[in-house]
Amino acid sequence: MQMPAIIAHRGASAEAQENTLTAFALAADQGATLWEIDVRRTGDGALVVFHDETTERFEPIGRPLCALTLGQLRRIDLGGERVPTLDEVCALARERGCGLNVELKEVGYEEQVAYTLARHGLYDQAIVSSFYDEALLRLRAAAPALPRGLLMGVQRLDPRIRWREARPLAALRRVEATAWHPHFRLLLIPGLLRSVLQAGYQVNVWTVNDGSLARRLVAAGVSGLITDIPGTLVAALSNRDSFSRSLA
Ligand code: G3P
Ligand code: MG
Question: Which of 2, 122, 178, 236 is the most exposed, having the fewest neighbouring CB atoms within 10 Å of its CB?
Fold first, then answer.
């Protein structure tokens, strides 16, 4: 059984402030292969690694990112750290030998992301993911060689979303994705994972924070686990390997 890619969700986010250089460095220390990073654009056009649409989790009166300059955003205190730029995270990924799973949180800056990854020599260690078909289609047009992961599994009571999630192959083909990024709950739909794997797609599952679930998913053939606890999963899966070796 092959070791999956361990993809640190917003860095080692269970132990450090999410989406910060500290969280990414810790993920590298813990053996993560890639870092999942949320990318947005500030009002003055800088690409930053930040999950939310507004700053409300970090200051009393939230402001939308698109109304802030990079300088204003950087004044927000994230427990002693600043919001990193995509450039800074790329430089650290290069230095630490980690790849990136870049999640496009909005549509409109796909070419800028591809250019930044290329400039840092990360093209071969990156996958770009999104919940938005439009973002992946625009990325394909700008950078056809970059792998693309289609995200699914938002908690919304919209029957169109449920319909689409029950038939992921149609959506994957439409955007010419190379990978499917489902929430692990979607894999409870019988036969779904097998059909996607048989069609030749990589499958990277989120957010897997449990060792036994991780082992079952790897046994079922998933290629990557997106997790808040990369160190724990690396240990859980390494123990599994030594356990199987001792039986061989
Ligand atoms: O890549 C999976 C995951 O990051 C998608 O959801 O909200 O954590 O960005 P979210
Ligand atoms: Mg994300």
Answer: 2
CB atoms near residue 32 (< 10 Å) = 27
Q: Which atom in ligand 1 lies closest to the alpha carbon of residue 9? A: 4
The answer to whether residue 247 scores a pLDDT higher than 60 is no
Domain of 208 in residue numbering reads as 5-247
The pLDDT value given to residue 245: 42
The answer, yes or no, to whether any atom of ligand 1 lies below 6 A from the CB of 126, is no
Structural domain count of the chain: 1
Query: For ligand 1, is residue 103 a contact (CB within 6 Å)?
Result: yes
Pairing mode of beta strands 99-104, 34-41: parallel
Ligand nearest to the CA of 224: 1
Residue nearest to atom 2 of ligand 1 (CA): 206
The model scores a pTM over 0.70: yes
9 CB under 6 A from ligand 1? yes
Instruction: Give CA–CA dist 128/44, Å, rounded.
Output: 23
Residue 241 is predicted with a pLDDT of 52
More confident residue, 166 or 205: 205
Tokens of 151: 């995200």
The domain spanning residue 58 has which CATH number? 3.20.20.190
Q: Taking 60 as the threshold, does the pLDDT of residue 151 lie above it?
A: yes
The answer to whether the CB of 165 falls within 8 A of the CB of 153 is yes
Please write the tens of the pLDDT for every residue from 169-199.
Answer: 999 999 999 999 999 999 999 999 999 999 9
